[in-house]
Amino acid sequence: MTVLILGLLLFLGLHSVRIVADDWRSAQLARLGDKRWKGLYSLVAFVGLGLIIWGYGLARQQTQVLWTPPMGLRHASALLMLLSLILLAAANVPGNRIKTLVHHPMLLGTQFWAVAHLLANGNVADVLLFGGFLVWSSVDLYSAVQRDRAAGMAYPGGTVAGTLLAIVAGCLLWLLLAFWLHGVLFGVRPFG
What we know:
Layout: H1 2-14, H2 17-20, H3 22-32, H4 34-61, H5 72-92, H6 97-102, H7 105-120, H8 124-151, H9 160-186
Helix pairs in contact: 1-4, 1-8, 3-4, 4-8, 5-7, 5-9, 7-8
């Protein structure tokens, strides 16, 4: 569990800098320049992500079951994952109305991803991993909305084509993950 916790602290801590120390972040950006800041940020993020993956794998080998989710929750989890992946696509597809409505689809998608996995898993390692991401994404979403309001941020309207592209991309990613890639990467096939 220690490696998982260390990875979560490093990865989520780094991604919380804008929440807790935005002035420090701005000063570092000015001091280092955009490329060096992004390079260092990426390096630390990849180390944290690597520790999360390694630590989660270790923690799952000696896991403690807190609860056994009922089978019906797996269906709810699948639906939440579909929404999560559409939001993830919307965060990356320019000119879509989803981003116009939601403003921060990546963070909302992360929340849906975390809740979906908490519904389908009841081990200590799962609660640490997915619960940690749920708490972080909730705080970060609140912080981002506050920054937007303070800056008077307005999100431009999207197009039907951009919106459809985001929805189709999210659905295709869901199909790929649900029926093949999740089993290959994580050893768990959501639909057997």
